[in-house]
Specification:
The structure is a homodimer of 113-residue chains. The first copy, chain A, has 113 residues and is mainly β. Chain A has 1 helix and 8 strands; from the N terminus they run αββββββββ. Chain A has one helix at 3-6, and strands at 22-28, 32-39, 55-62, 65-69, 76-78, 83-86, 92-97, 103-110. A 5-stranded antiparallel beta sheet of chain A has the order 1-2-8-3-6, with no helix packed on it. A 3-stranded antiparallel beta sheet of chain A has the order 5-4-7, with no helix packed on it. In chain A, strand 4 (65-69) and strand 5 form a beta hairpin. The longest helix of chain A has 4 residues, at 3-6. Chain A is globular and about 45 Å long. The interface between A and B is large, with 36 and 36 residues.
């Protein structure tokens, strides 16, 4: 593992605009995967829900976003430092991300053994 | 789990000064522990090394810090968005944290099964 992968800088080298979300895998071990996700105004299609077999814990590092859960009426707004724990198979979608500046997420995925 | 623990806000409710580091456990599952650590100028004693049985992955959310590894001469400086993967039993210490503003860390700990 190089110094860069041991010490990634998540708020550096941000794309200014993107056709799709950019996902960079920062670490993968048998137990845990860590990703940086950069969104620029992306949102899920209204009928499209994430239904994941892994647990997810996500935190916004910069920008703003709103999460929507299939089982909850209110959306959850997230700014810098705000996190969400999304248990496996809790259906959710990204309702909105700020269109004017990139939204940088740190996302963890893991399965219970 | 309440809405607060599902959606913690890590840059809110920061202490202005602390005698000791403040550690808040945000999530604990059989596989993974997530903590928020707030330091205000704290550093390890020079002869005191962390030697952990778990892997650690840490990211600075606000403030500044320097990490030192026993097996490396150069310190690693971390600002907002900068992370470090510290494999189990790699001896390390916190050489410095900014004394003027709190340094907020997100820290993950896990064991490989």
């Amino acid at each position: 593992m190089t110094r860069d992968t041991m010490h990634p800088r998540l708020l550096h080298d941000l794309p200014r605009s993107l056709d799709e979300e950019q996902i960079d895998e920062l670490l993968r071990t048998p137990s845990l995967r860590i990703e940086r996700i950069v969104s620029t105004g992306h949102a899920s299609a209204e009928s499209s829900w994430y239904d994941q077999s892994e647990h997810e814990w996500v935190i916004v590092l910069s920008g703003r976003a709103r999460l929507r859960y299939e089982d909850e009426d209110d959306e959850v707004e997230l700014g810098p430092g705000d996190a969400a724990f999304i248990p496996a198979h809790r259906k959710h979608q990204v309702a909105w991300t700020s269109p004017d500046a990139p939204t940088v997420w740190l996302a963890l995925f893991w399965s219970e053994s």
